[in-house]
UniProtKB/TrEMBL annotation, chain A:
GO molecular function terms attached to this record: acyltransferase activity, transferring groups other than amino-acyl groups
UniProt name for this protein: Acetyl-CoA acetyltransferase
Keyword Phosphoprotein: no
SUPFAM superfamilies linked: Thiolase-like
Keyword Metal-binding: no
Organism expressing this protein natively: Halopolyspora algeriensis
InterPro entries for the chain: Thiolase, Thiolase-like
Sorted UniProt keywords: Transferase
UniProtKB/TrEMBL annotation, chain B:
UniProt cross-references to InterPro entries, sorted A to Z: ChsH2_C (IPR002878), ChsH2_Znr (IPR022002), NA-bd_OB-fold (IPR012340), Thioester_dehydratase-like (IPR052513)
SUPFAM superfamilies per record: Nucleic acid-binding proteins
ChsH2 rubredoxin-like zinc ribbon domain: residues covered: 203-234
Species lineage: Bacteria, Bacillati, Actinomycetota, Actinomycetes, Actinomycetes incertae sedis
Composition skew (Low complexity), residue ranges: 150-159
Domain ChsH2 C-terminal OB-fold intervals: 67-130, 239-303
Pfam families xref list: OB_ChsH2_C, zf-ChsH2
Span list, region Disordered: 150-176, 315-335
Protein name in the entry: OB-fold protein
Length: 353, 335
């Protein structure tokens, strides 16, 4: 292969809502966005070289829900397909590798999650160590609260800093038609609200969201044909930390820092960060080394819509969109998975190659 | 469900008792817990890990240097749980905490039993409250209690059984190390049928069989689908199908299994309703199992109307009509 470059050439997302009427295999959310993202590039399903999805059977409450989701594609004749039981940002990583091997020239990546079908806070306890931690059913908000207080106690951030993140995200989300939560918000008003789970208030926590998103990747030749301003991937790295919560440094994110260093973050103008809790955005900004000049999560971020197993892919799509619409030259997207930012992915993209 | 057009949904309970073998490191940790002791393991950098880790977080070497640690510790961080969820250590409001036990270097996640968040603070001292009947599980630690200031001194491994009830005889006498742990997991969902399936299920409750046609390939699906697996578009035009059809293929069930409702041998068959393009699985009864054959014509035997619901179980089974067999060509492309 002469040119290893890969670009994002299309992005679509389903409405982010507290509860969809659809099934947990995501078909009702996926059919419209697969058509939308294909139509946007002029491709048909037969043109796609590789399909890769991210979703979770624990969220769906049924086995092989991702296989049922393949119905949304219409997989006849048979397709080249794979799946990760992770956020679809990691499915995008697999698709990126697949294109770089030269086996395929295009890939469609999608993620979906219907969190409303179960009790998300309990379900997420099952991603913890199954011997010493998960049997206690620690919920996702409780664990995030432990992480938040470590930073509050050490003076690394304040409740005002956390509320400021929420206020900025909600204000930004007013221009995002796909956002689940949006509206003008004052830090003082947010801080007047009671605790949801001390030290976290409701505004510190991402909403429970049903949603889905899809991204099309293409190799260099196809990207130039399909898109006026492809978002060229300049770095794509992911790192993981220990599954033992107590062994981790929870107020820093070494895995994010390592991924960002390897991906290269110079000149980033916009960063879409997958922070389901306000203090996690502060951790991520520090770990990546994002200065005040960088626009953070102009979509409103995961705090305004957090479709499980799609929200990380959505960050990549939202960041790529800034390149494709000409409003930014160099962007960064981040995705996370696991408890308290255990696993992190950083994707950098730019407009001209 | 209220509105007639809303999709049907119903509770879905998923449960499983996960049974895991523990191996030498976690097994030793669990065995100590059963004896109301807490053992950590020392890593390559000298840090004592509690809970134990099987491999060194830095060098990945297998670890086996066990260290008994204290049963009091210090809260490094905490969060308040006003409304506990099913399965959590306490049924009333409590605090999650990262607790560094005396003699340990990494903190353990567990619950602290206090009545309000005002009674929690970082740096406070807490002590293990043991469960009445330890089995060799992290849940042998029922939770932690605050240590009153005047009792905070001491807290060595020696005073650990302080206020705990005596170990049950059967437990104290057990010498076999703990090798397995069982974790019951029960999750509760609201399962939704798709809009297309919901129409089908509601029609079944009226004794009608409803299919839908794929607008792209023209195939008639029963049940209708949110996406035609060939074309990826929802099925649309509704078609009422008769309750008679053809056996396309079948198997004779000879093997008993848990929950079986019919005495073997019996026949599970794919039935292709007249006018449908996709067969579904059902029972063929009303004749000897060895008489069932590909191409056999069958008709639904419905349960009595008072037993009907939004389910294909309204049809108890299919039985032979006595018509001549359908020619192979009539169902060959539906196999």
């Amino acid at each position: 292969m002469t040119d290893p470059d890969v670009a994002v050439v299309g992005f679509a997302q389903a409405p982010n809502t507290r509860q969809t009427y659809g099934t947990t295999n995501g078909v009702e959310m996926l059919v419209p966005i697969l058509h939308e993202v294909l139509d946007g590039t002029g491709l048909t399903k037969g043109d796609i070289g590789f399909w890769c999805s991210g979703s979770s059977d624990y969220l769906a409450g049924r086995a092989f829900s991702f296989v049922a989701a393949v119905d949304a594609i219409g997989a006849v004749p048979p397709i080249n397909e794979s799946h990760v039981e992770m956020d679809a940002a990691w499915a995008l990583y697999e698709a990126w590798v697949k294109i770089r091997t030269g086996q395929v020239d295009t890939a469609l990546v999608y993620g979906f999650g219907k969190s409303s079908a179960g009790d998300l806070r309990r379900t997420l306890a099952l991603q913890l160590d199954p011997y010493t931690t998960a049997p206690l059913w620690p919920d996702s908000v409780g664990i995030a609260g432990l992480q938040a207080r470590l930073g509050l106690d050490s003076g690394q951030w304040t409740e005002q800093d956390m509320a400021a993140v929420a206020a900025r995200c909600r204000t930004d989300a007013r221009t995002n038609p796909h956002a689940q939560i949006s509206g003008a918000a004052e830090v003082s008003e947010l801080l007047a609200e009671p605790y949801l789970a001390d030290p976290l208030r409701a505004h510190d926590c991402a909403p429970i969201t049903d949603g889905a998103s899809a991204v099309i990747l293409a190799d260099a030749d196809r990207a130039r044909e399909l898109c006026a301003r492809p978002a060229w991937i300049t770095g794509l790295e992911h790192r993981m930390e220990s599954g033992n919560l107590g062994a981790r440094e929870l107020t820093t994110s070494p895995s994010t820092a390592g991924a960002a260093r390897a991906a290269g973050t110079d000149g980033v103008e916009v960063a879409e960060l997958h922070a389901p809790f306000t203090h996690q955005e502060l951790v991520l900004r520090e770990a990546i080394g994002l200065g005040d000049e960088v626009r953070i999560s102009p979509s409103g971020g995961a705090l305004c819509a957090n479709p499980m197993f799609a929200a990380g892919l959505t960050r990549i799509g939202e960041a790529a969109r800034r390149i494709m619409d000409g409003s930014a030259r160099r962007v960064l997207a981040h995705a996370t998975s696991g408890p308290a930012l255990q696993q992190n992915l950083v994707c950098t993209m730019e407009g001209h190659r | 469900m209220t509105g007639i057009s809303e999709p049907l949904s119903a509770p879905l309970e998923v449960g499983f008792d996960y049974t895991r073998s523990l191996g030498p490191v976690l097994g030793r940790f669990a065995t100590a817990l059963r004896q109301r002791r807490i053992e950590g393991v020392r890593g390559s950098d000298g840090r004592v890990h509690v809970p134990v880790v099987e491999y060194d977080p830095i060098t990945a070497e297998a670890l086996d240097d066990f260290v008994e640690v204290g049963q009091q510790g210090t809260v490094l961080s905490w969060s308040w749980t006003p409304h506990p969820l099913e399965g959590q250590p306490l049924a009333h409001a409590f605090a999650w905490a990262l607790i560094r036990l005396d003699g340990a270097d990494t903190p353990l996640l567990h619950a602290v039993d206090v009545v309000s968040p005002q009674e929690m603070h970082t740096g406070m001292r807490v002590r293990v409250r043991w469960s009445d009947a330890p089995v060799g599980s992290i849940r042998d630690i029922a939770c932690f209690d605050p240590v009153p200031d005047d009792a905070a001194a001491g807290g060595t491994a020696a005073d650990h059984t302080g206020e705990a009830p005596p170990l049950p005889e059967s437990t104290s006498e057990q010498q076999e190390p703990v090798a397995m742990t069982t974790t019951p997991v029960h999750l509760h969902y609201r399962h939704s049928a798709s809009p297309e399936e919901s129409q089908y299920l509601r029609a079944l409750a009226e004794g009608r069989l409803i299919g839908q046609r794929c607008p792209a390939c023209g195939k008639v699906y029963i049940p209708p689908r949110g996406a035609c697996p060939t074309d990826g578009v929802p099925t649309t035009d509704e078609i009422e199908l008769p309750d008679a059809g053809t056996v396309t293929t079948f198997c004779i069930v000879n093997v008993p299994f848990l929950g079986q409702r019919i005495k073997p041998p019996y026949v599970a068959a794919y039935v292709l309703l007249d006018g449908a393009d996709i067969p579904f699985l059902h029972l063929v009864l009303g004749c000897a199992a060895e008489e069932v054959r590909m191409g056999m014509r069958v008709r639904a035997a419905w349960k009595s109307r008072d037993q009907w619901g939004t389910t294909l179980e309204n049809i108890d089974h299919f039985e032979p009509t006595g018509e001549p067999d359908a020619p192979y060509e009539s169902y060959a492309r539906h196999l």
